[in-house]
Design goal:
Radius of gyration: 18 Å
Shape: globular
CATH class: Mainly Alpha
Bound molecules: geranylgeranyl diphosphate
Distance between the termini: 13 Å
Number of domains: 1
Structural class: mainly alpha
Oligomer: single chain
Strand content: under 5%
Helix content: 55-70%
Largest sheet: 2 strands, antiparallel
Length: 297
């Protein structure tokens, strides 16, 4: 089995089916950028963030499919961040998900526009009245606001900025934590919060979703650092070892491999603890949490 139980695999299938339909058609004069948007979102990724949206929606008593537009919007934002992160002006990475990165396939200009297109499309999809499926307007607004905040200055953009501003320098643990809480953690937290908010869960449950997402996000990043040091390019579908070559501060460089793995274990335990109030219904999420600790991609 991969990282998903059969219940979570159903979410994955629903996302793979719905995502292309929320993207623009590739006909017309601007078709080439639409093609690049589809390429950037094509299958190959784990779809972890949208799966979390749907599972938190289900766990909190909502109908998972009603959260699909938001799940797909979140995956669009994640995909745009990877497209821009791979650009020559950032990581200059030729490969992503085992195939040429978007700029390698479509050129730098189209990749830049496709990323911008995906970011905007995400908010169009969240706010399109056609996609509201009877969800409360108030919850749609809350979810969309959380998504914008997680993707923006206080989230992913802020984290990426801290990362780039410290390139080539050693940073301390506090800075590393803030960097990753924003760069990687914020979207994972938002995924869990979105599901809970759209299900109209009460404040305490939304807070549990937030706490769970924060610990899962940190574990996810630590394991990302571990994989960069230990996995092969074939396994990850992208170049590896870049952290060491670029003398980047990572959980592995600060705490060693064993130390980093131990921290990831502690974050997994804390994430599981945040699920303690949920009973058997959260078993799929528990299985995912444990699988992410030992993932190889
Ligand atoms: C350029 C605006 C902008 C932001 C870039 C997220 C990010 C910020 C850059 C990605 C760099 C990176 C490797 C971060 C580490 C964690 C991470 C986000 C890994 C990729 O996510 P996965 O493993 O990817 O969920 P898949 O391919 O499975 O979707």
């Amino acid at each position: 089995m991969g990282i998903y139980t059969s219940q979570l695999d159903k979410h994955l299938q629903a996302i793979e089916q719905a995502l292309p339909d929320y993207l623009p058609e590739t006909s017309g004069r601007a078709g080439v950028v639409a093609e690049a948007m589809h390429y950037a979102c094509a299958a190959g990724g784990k779809r972890l963030r949208p799966v979390l949206v749907l599972e938190w929606m289900r766990l909190c008593g909502g109908e998972a499919e009603k959260a699909l537009p938001f799940a797909c919007a979140l995956e669009m934002i994640h995909s745009y961040s990877l497209v821009h992160d791979d650009l020559p002006c950032m990581d200059n990475s030729p490969m992503r998900r085992g195939k040429p990165s978007a700029h390698a396939a479509y050129g730098e200009t189209m990749a830049l526009l496709a990323g911008d297109g995906l970011l905007n499309r995400a908010f169009e999809v969240c706010l399109d009245p056609m996609n509201s499926s009877g969800l409360k307007s108030e919850n749609i607004l809350k979810a969309t606001y959380l998504l914008g905040t997680a993707a923006g200055f206080d989230g992913m953009i802020g984290g990426q900025t801290i990362d780039l501003a410290n390139e080539g320098q050693r940073i301390d643990e506090d800075t590393l934590r803030e960097l990753h809480r924003k760069k990687t953690g914020a979207l994972l937290v938002a995924a869990c919060q979105l599901g809970a908010v759209l299900a109209d869960a009460d404040e305490a449950v939304v807070t549990a979703a937030e706490t769970y997402g924060a610990h899962l996000g940190l574990c996810f990043q630590i394991i990302d650092d571990v994989l960069d040091a230990t996995a092969t390019a074939d396994q990850l579908g992208k170049p590896v070892g870049a952290d060491e070559i670029n003398e980047k501060t990572t959980y592995v460089s600060l705490f060693g491999l064993d130390g980093a793995v131990e921290m990831a274990r502690q974050e997994t335990a804390a994430a599981l603890d945040a699920l303690s109030g949920f009973g058997q219904e959260a078993n799929d999420l528990r299985a995912l949490t444990e699988a992410l600790l030992t993932r190889i991609v």
